[in-house]
Amino acid sequence: MSPKPFFAPFFAPFAALALAAVAGTASAQRLVDYAQLDGSSESWTVVAVRALGDPRAAAPAPLVSATYTRWADGEAGGLGAVYRFGLPTGEHAASIGVGAGVNGYRSTAGGRIDSDTGLSGRLQAESYGPAPGGHYYVLGQASTFRNGWLATAQYDPAPWPVAFELTHYAETGYRATTAALRLAIGRSGWWLRAGAIDDTGGTRGFVGVAYNGF
Question: Which of 67, 119, 163, 178 could lock 182 by a disulfide, CB 3.0 to 4.6 Å apart?
Answer without folding.
Answer: 163
